[in-house]
Design goal:
Shape: globular
Mean pLDDT: 95
Helix content: 25-40%
Number of strands: 8
Strand order of the largest sheet: 1-3-2-6-8-7
Largest sheet: 6 strands, mixed
Strand content: 15-25%
Order of helices and strands: HHEEHHEEEHEHHEEHH
Number of helices: 9
Structural class: alpha/beta
Radius of gyration: 17 Å
Distance between the termini: 60 Å
Low-confidence stretches: none
């Protein structure tokens, strides 16, 4: 008798993605996703949020500690900084759709009740979560994708992606079978970690202004 692999051992969310339905159906289905082992330690799935008719979709890496607890993307310090930068660049955060390449929080923890430390997802984990991102793109159909950081870039554009080489430029690529325009930039959390936070913020703002111009 051949043993059947558990979905998480197969490293794909595909069996959990509904064939039809909008964002509500996707969000409900994603809550039950067991497509990779990351669901075991995370509090909950953190699906995308925002305007289903958004012209711009922002894609980050994965939920952080606050996102994992609240079940919503970009609600922590990095999210607040991103909202500020979007507004300054001329993009209304309320009219955007925000999501992550990976929907579960990956972390290390020295011992219970100690701080949970973010750990970057592997390419295998990003690939496993790809069907959710493909489904979000198919429903929202944004005019532009803002790629926030190296991990999101690798999830969308492949493992050779380097954010420093293409940030602040408009790329045209086929993503999950759809022609897309993308503007890569750094993840807002990197601005918070920067030695010169003001300079890092100006760089993020400059990239987002390119995105705002591309939407005009």
């Amino acid at each position: 008798m051949v043993a059947i692999k558990a979905p998480e051992d197969a490293y794909t969310a595909e069996p959990f993605v509904p064939e039809r339905g909008g964002l509500t159906a996707l969000r409900r289905a994603a809550a039950e996703c067991r497509g990779c082992p990351l669901h075991r330690d995370a509090t909950q799935t953190v699906f995308g949020a925002g305007n289903k008719d958004a012209r711009v979709m922002l894609v980050g890496e994965q939920p952080g500690d606050q996102e994992d607890r609240q079940g919503k993307p970009f609600v922590g310090p990095a999210g607040r900084l991103l909202d500020r930068a979007l507004e300054e660049a001329g993009i209304d955060p309320c009219e955007a759709y925000v999501t992550n390449a990976v929907k579960h929080f990956k972390f290390t923890q020295a011992e219970p009740r100690k701080r949970r430390i973010h750990k970057a997802p592997t390419l295998r984990e990003m690939t496993a979560c790809g069907p959710w991102l493909a489904a979000e793109l198919a429903v929202v159909e944004p005019e532009l994708i803002v790629v926030l950081g190296a991990t999101a870039g690798k999830a969308l554009l492949g493992s050779s992606f380097r954010v420093t080489q293409v940030r602040g430029t408009v790329l045209e690529e086929e993503i999950h079978g759809r022609p897309e325009r993308l503007v890569p930039t750094v993840h807002p959390s990197s601005v918070l970690r920067a030695d010169d936070r003001e300079a890092a913020y100006r760089g993020l703002l400059s990239d987002l202004k390119v995105a705002a111009q591309a939407l005009r």
